[in-house]
Structures are given as structure tokens and as C-alpha cells.
Specification:
The protein is an alpha+beta fold. It has 4 domains: about 30 residues, no CATH class; about 450 residues, Alkaline Phosphatase, subunit A (3-Layer(aba) Sandwich); about 80 residues, Arylsulfatase, C-terminal domain, CATH 3.30.1120.10; about 180 residues, Jelly Rolls, CATH 2.60.120.200. It is about 20% helix and about 20% strand. It is built from 15 helices and 30 strands. The strands form 6 sheets. Strands 3, 4, 5, 6, 7, 8, 9, 10, 11, 12 and 13 form an 11-stranded mixed beta sheet that branches. A hairpin with a 2-residue loop joins β27 and β28. α4 runs parallel beside α7 and α6 packs parallel to α9.
């Protein structure tokens, strides 16, 4: 059989065209193929996992899969991130700094400045786009969080969804977190329901591993030798900490010693194993973290259980990632797969001093108490919970470092990094001390696999990479750090590392940031090359060095679009952002459409409003949801059950306020309505109506003030996605009559007083 004649895609045709096919010679355009023997690339990104929470970094949490990768590869102890989620991911995938990508903060807090608008420019190509152009298959699994929050909706632009940035396949979730028992899933460019319900044993970690294995198998069926890039991002260990009870039972009683002693034990293992430099000191406990010995028995019992659940969640995550690694080994491909495993920032303190059974309470200015949390202790980690642990465990999870996620002392942005590549790395099990930043990952991968950064990509001229490759250190433990400087900025806090020195100033998050405040702020100085845990502030001893680093920070800030500084947290969410909807007072919803989320759904919070469903009830009657938003952690639902019309307002899982019609809904065409009249701050009076006639009313003394969605469970018409707003029905509880449309009208087309809604419950610690 004659060989097919081919030519590179995008170049002139090399065959011959005559007047007939018989006089002509065919030739086929083919895309560029990867070089023979090119390695696979797998990047595994954990979420909110601290420096000390993996077994191979000193923890007693069982992570045999991660430990196996570390034993067969390298551990980098001086790896750094941006201290928060979306910015770290943008750096990792582009090799450019987070503000250069327009991702200076998480996507939900984007603002209208070049360093913060959330729109990664096309001249900052993604690693997926670079590798796709070089003949790689490209898959993204799990968390994305690089799409603007106003573009999560199914009908919104897909320009910032994964398939538009070089990934051929995607399975996961778009936002910053999701419910592991009932996630809001996207498959490629559309929303889907999970393959089964939480009642039937579904868990997202297992599903993601199944899908990663499936994608590899699908590729190998048609292209046995084609290398792939798998970007595999877990929602774990970000809250909610969800895991099956059999995993939790393995840790019962393990953390009764408390965070102080646990931290000391981890520190001892880190020193003994060479994970941290010899002579590193254990940084002191901050005053806002209570000493374990000062706690009463109830608090100890609560906090210990919280960490049992977290540890189980992390071990279960390790297990499912291990399934994917085992599958690559069975295929004979693990030896020539470059695996990089890291976390996106330090352990998270967002559970507050007591932790939270329902994390949706936190942004709504409700701080859980020990007593309230204990009421739910047996359900911690289950589908009835949306939990996070107390911040004492976040502090301990970053041992021996100071602070935690969102802050720029080491605990916020120093993270575990494991590199495993048996075919390329000979020095297995070693700990590397070179200074590395997440912006350096993409250039390192490219150099290691022999691909030059492209000058153009998809017809767009590319900006130079801003990261510095550390590929030499993969092969030579004595290779010097080639990086000379790295700036940091997060929510107004600033830091700069240069040649082993670090200057840092922490801005209270949510606090005012003015020129006067800037002038009065006191920077700290650490020689981190010798003081890994930042225990000795040298600002007074070396004022000249401090001035030099501060001045260099402002230079870097100007270079990379860092300004203007902004210390606001949730208030940034309230700023008006570009939207195809525009301001309006009337919204029309159609049955069974994909959910609408916080930035595209009607905002009824703290506003008088009317919901009118135009329906047809068959002679046999009907039931189901007309309109709802949220889940049993917070939200509202208007629905028909047992022949009557119901409205439920779920106030953050703390109380349900229910109004039920006094009469049954007869067959025929009707307007079923709910009117809410605001009578005060976050309270009001509700009325149910049948064809304009009142059929039920009641007071709603507490409404959700700021945040309904805990995990992307958006506004639904004709059904309730994920977990139901109320246990009065089982989701999806689709309406069995006919809905023509549901119209929601609010009292005005402008946004409500977001300042009043969103005054932060975020701590300054």
C-alpha cells in the first residue's frame, strides 16, 4: 500500500492538482507531532494544603501516594506561590506573574484595572496552548477558577473556559470551590449532573480520578505514542472538607493532643528528615490562636474532630490521585511522565477561630460558636455539612512557618512541591533547597521536555516568560538558584525576595489603605536564606537593605501592573462588572435551563421583589420547584407540593421560614406568585398569591444578607440542582406541570447597598 503523502498543517499544499483526479496527486495536511519519546506532563495541584500537611513534609496524616512520588523524585522545600488560588493558577499555566495576567486576586473580586480584571491576555499563552501546538494531547481535570464569575453561566462567553485556552477536554468545576457530594460539574463546555447522587456513594475525588483515567485510555486507544499534558486540580483540601465516614474513623482520637503538640511533633520530623534546613526555629504561636491547654473539653473535642475530618479528606484525596498514578504505571508510562505536585497556597484560616459547620455563614457575618458546631459534630464531613476547621489547625498545617493563606509571611505562600520523573531524575528522594516560585513552573517544564517558549501562539505575538527555569536543579542538586528577585502582592500586603533576603509588610485585609497608611506601615526584614521560618526581624539592624528591597518592590510593581493597591476583600465582589445583562429590574426565566449563578442571577437579597410563575396544572395535579436559588446551606425556593404553594427561605442553615398557601391550587392556567416586602435590614413580609389573590402570608425575620451560593448551586427554574434548599423535598424535584415562564421583578434596577450587605467578617489575622 502506497504511503500517504503529507505536509505540515498551515503550509502550502505539496501534492499536485490536475483537471481530473487521475491526473492529480493527493496530500494531507497534518498537525505537528511531538518528538519521539517526548514525556507526558502531569501537573497535580492541591488546594489550601499547607507546607506541613503531607506525610513526606513531616505530617502524620497518611499520604502514601504523595510520599511514593517524593521517594522516587524530589521535594522542593523553598517553593512559593501567590498565597491565594486564581493568581497561583494563572502564574502556573502561563509562566507570567499574576498581575501581568490580570489575575491579581481571585476572579470573583476582579476590578477594572489591568492587573486585576481577570482577563488573561492572549499574548500570555497557556502551557496547554504551547504543548498542544507541539503535538501534545491536553486535558484539564477538576478546579479551574480562571473564568470571570460573570461568565460561569451556560449561556455566557466561553472565551475564558478551559477549552478556549488550549485544553481539548475538561471535566470539573469553574469556581473556587464546590460541594464534593453534589458538585456543580462542567463537561467540556456544558453543565452536567453528577453521574450519581451522594446518597448512592458519589464523591467528586473518585469521579475526577475516574475521568482522568478515562481520558488517558481514550487517547491510548487512537494514539498509543502521543504524549499528553494532564492538568489535574483537586478541590481538596479547600473547604468543604467532605469525606466518607470510614476514612474519618481511621483518625479518631489521633489529634486529641492538640495543635501545639502536633506542631512540635511535625517540626521534629521535619528537622530529622532534612525537610527544613538545619537550625530552623519553630516560629511562635500568634496571640490570636488560643493555646490548646487553655481550651475547655468541649472546644478540644470539637477542634480535634475537625482535624480528623480534614486528615481523612486529605488521605482519601491521596488515594484517588494514587489510582491515576498507578494506572500510568500499569500502562508502562510512569517512568517517562514528568509529574509536578504542589499546593496553590498555604493552609486556610477561613474557618475562623472555631471552624464552621456551614462555611456559607462566614461571608454572611455569622461566626459559628463552639456550642453550635458541637450540635453537628456527628455530621461533620457528611453531605449535611459544609465544614472548615478552626484556624489553629491552619497555623499548625504550615509548620514551622508564620501565618497562612492570603498573607505574605512564609505560611501563606510557602508550599510543598514534589517533582517525579524516573527517566529524567537520578537523585531520588532528595530535598532541594533552591528558591522556586510558581511562575517558574511553566519555563521549567518547557526546558525539561525540550520545547522553546513560542514567539507567537495561535497568531498572537507572545510576551516573554517572566518565570525562571529551575530545570538544572532537577538533575543537579548543587545547581545554584538562577532567580534573583520575586515580588509578591496580595490584597494590599506586599513582599519582595531578592538573593536570600525578604522584606514584607502585612496590610490588614478589609482595612483602609491610603497614602497616609502606606507612609506609616512598618516593613519587616528577614534573611530567609538563614532564617527559613522568619523568626528574626532584621529591619532595625539592616535599614539600608530594607530600603533597597522596598524600593525594588515599587519598581517591580510598576513593571507588572500591581498598582493600584487595594486591601478590600468582599467589597470588591460588589463592584459593578461588565455584563451582557446590564442593570435591570425584570428577569425572565425558562424551565430546565442551566443554573444561573451569583453574578448573572437576579439579586433579591435585602430588596423588595416579586416572583410570578405562569403555569398550567393538569387535572391530576402537579408538584415541583418553580424557582429556587441555593441549597440547604442557604437560599430560597418557591414550589408546589401536596397541592399547595410553598415558599421557604433558608437562613444559612440556622432557620427555615416557611409560608404555605391556605388552599389547594386547582387545575388550569394560573399565575403563582410570591411577593416580598422589605421591612428592615435583611427582614421582611412575604405573601403567596394565586392569580393575584393572596392565599398565604408570613414574616421572614432573617434573610440571607450577602452570599447564597456555597458551591455554585445557582438559580434554577423548574427544578433544584444539587442539594435541595429545603429537606421538604428531594432534588431535583422537577415541576410536573407546565411552566411558561417565571418572571422576577425587583424594586429597582440598580444593585442594592452592597456596602451594607458585605461588610466583612474576615479577620485581620
Amino acid at each position: 500500500m502506497a504511503e500517504l503523502k503529507t505536509y505540515p498543517e498551515g503550509t502550502p499544499f505539496t501534492g499536485r492538482i490536475g483537471r481530473t483526479a487521475g491526473e492529480s496527486e493527493a496530500a494531507w495536511p497534518v498537525p505537528k507531532a511531538a518528538r519521539p519519546g517526548a514525556p507526558n506532563v502531569v501537573v497535580i495541584l492541591l488546594d489550601d494544603v499547607g507546607f506541613a500537611q503531607l506525610g513526606c513534609f513531616g505530617s502524620d496524616i497518611r499520604t502514601p501516594g504523595f510520599d511514593r512520588l517524593a521517594a522516587g523524585g524530589l521535594r522542593y522545600r523553598d517553593f512559593h506561590t501567590t498565597a491565594i488560588c486564581s493568581p497561583t493558577r494563572a502564574c502556573l499555566l502561563t509562566g507570567r506573574n499574576h498581575h501581568s495576567n490580570g489575575v491579581g486576586i481571585i476572579q470573583e473580586m476582579a476590578t477594572g484595572f489591568p492587573g486585576y480584571n481577570g482577563a488573561v491576555p492572549r499574548e500570555n499563552g497557556f502551557l496547554s496552548e504551547m504543548l498542544l501546538a507541539e503535538g501534545y494531547a491536553t486535558f484539564a481535570i477538576g478546579k479551574w477558577h480562571l473564568t470571570l464569575a460573570g461568565e460561569y453561566a451556560s449561556g455566557a462567553s466561553k472565551a475564558r473556559w478551559p477549552l478556549a485556552r488550549g485544553f481539548e477536554r475538561f471535566y470539573g468545576f469553574l469556581g473556587g470551590k464546590t460541594n464534593h457530594w453534589a458538585p456543580t460539574l462542567v463537561h467540556d463546555n456544558h453543565y452536567i449532573d453528577p453521574p450519581r447522587g451522594w446518597e448512592d456513594g458519589y464523591h467528586l475525588n473518585a469521579d475526577l480520578a475516574d475521568r482522568a483515567i478515562e481520558y488517558v485510555n481514550d487517547l491510548r486507544t487512537v494514539a498509543p505514542d502521543k504524549p499528553f499534558f494532564l492538568y489535574y486540580c483537586l478541590g481538596a483540601g479547600h473547604a468543604p472538607h467532605h469525606v466518607e465516614p470510614e476514612w474519618i474513623e481511621r483518625y479518631r482520637g489521633r489529634f486529641d493532643i492538640g495543635w501545639d503538640r502536633w506542631r512540635e511533633q511535625v517540626y521534629a520530623r521535619q528537622l530529622a528528615g532534612g525537610i527544613i534546613p538545619a537550625g530552623t526555629r519553630l516560629s511562635p504561636r500568634p496571640e490570636w490562636v488560643p493555646a490548646w491547654d487553655s481550651l475547655d473539653a468541649d472546644a478540644r473535642r470539637l477542634y480535634a474532630r475537625q482535624h480528623e475530618v480534614y486528615a481523612a479528606f486529605l488521605e482519601q484525596t491521596d488515594h484517588h490521585i494514587g489510582r491515576v498514578i498507578d494506572h500510568l504505571e500499569r500502562l508502562g508510562e510512569l517512568d517517562n511522565t514528568l509529574v509536578m505536585l504542589a499546593s496553590d497556597n498555604g493552609a486556610s484560616s477561613e474557618g475562623g477561630v472555631h471552624g464552621s459547620f456551614n462555611e456559607c455563614q462566614f461571608p454572611n457575618r455569622i461566626e459559628a460558636s463552639v456550642a453550635e458546631n458541637l450540635r453537628h459534630l456527628d455530621d461533620w464531613g457528611s453531605a449535611k455539612s459544609y465544614p472548615n476547621y478552626a484556624w489553629g489547625w491552619a497555623w499548625a498545617g504550615n509548620t514551622p512557618l508564620r501565618r497562612w493563606k492570603r498573607y505574605l509571611h512564609q505560611g501563606g505562600m510557602s508550599d510543598p512541591l514534589i517533582v517525579h520523573w524516573p527517566k529524567g531524575i537520578a537523585d531520588r528522594g532528595a530535598v532541594r533547597g533552591q528558591y522556586v516560585h510558581v511562575v517558574d513552573v511553566a519555563p521549567t517544564i518547557l526546558e525539561a521536555i525540550g520545547i522553546a517558549p513560542p514567539a507567537t501562539l495561535n497568531g498572537v505575538a507572545q510576551r516573554p516568560l517572566e518565570g525562571t527555569s529551575f530545570a538544572a536543579s532537577l538533575f543537579d542538586g548543587a545547581a545554584s538558584t538562577t532567580k534573583r528577585v520575586q515580588y509578591y502582592e496580595m490584597i494590599g500586603s506586599r513582599a519582595l525576595w531578592a538573593d536570600g533576603w525578604k522584606a514584607v509588610v502585612e496590610q490588614p485585609q478589609g482595612g483602609p489603605l491610603t497614602e497616609e497608611v502606606l507612609a506609616q506601615q512598618r516593613w519587616e526584614l528577614y534573611h530567609v536564606a538563614e532564617d527559613f521560618s522568619e523568626c528574626t526581624d532584621l529591619a532595625a539592624a539592616h535599614p539600608g537593605k530594607l530600603r533597597e528591597l522596598i524600593e525594588r518592590w515599587w519598581v517591580e510593581a510598576g513593571k507588572y501592573n500591581v498598582l493600584p493597591l487595594d486591601s478590600r476583600m468582599q467589597l470588591r465582589m460588589g463592584e459593578r462588572k461588565p455584563s451582557a445583562l446590564g442593570p435591570r429590574s425584570r428577569y425572565v426565566y425558562h424551565p430546565n435551563a442551566a443554573p444561573q449563578f451569583e453574578y448573572t442571577a437576579v439579586n433579591v437579597k435585602n430588596r423588595s421583589h416579586r416572583i410570578v410563575a405562569e403555569v398550567e396544572i393538569p387535572a391530576a395535579g402537579a408538584e415541583g420547584v418553580l424557582l429556587c436559588h441555593g441549597s440547604w446551606f442557604a437560599g430560597y425556593s418557591l414550589y408546589v407540593k401536596d397541592g399547595r404553594l410553598h415558599y421557604v427561605h433558608n437562613h444559612l442553615g440556622l432557620a427555615e421560614y416557611r409560608i404555605t398557601s391556605t388552599e389547594a391550587i386547582p387545575p388550569g392556567r394560573h399565575a403563582l406568585a410570591f411577593h416580598f416586602r422589605r421591612t428592615g435590614e435583611h427582614r421582611g413580609h412575604g405573601i403567596l398569591l394565586l392569580d393575584g389573590r393572596p392565599i398565604g402570608e408570613g414574616e421572614i425575620p432573617h434573610t440571607v444578607p450577602a452570599v447564597i451560593e456555597t458551591s455554585g448551586e445557582g438559580l434554577c427554574c423548574g427544578y433544584d440542582s444539587g442539594l435541595p434548599v429545603t429537606p421538604d423535598y428531594r432534588a431535583p424535584f422537577r415541576f410536573t406541570g407546565r411552566i411558561a415562564q417565571v418572571v422576577v421583578e425587583v424594586d429597582d434596577g440598580s444593585a442594592p447597598d452592597f456596602d451594607a450587605q458585605m461588610r466583612s467578617a474576615w479577620s485581620d489575622h
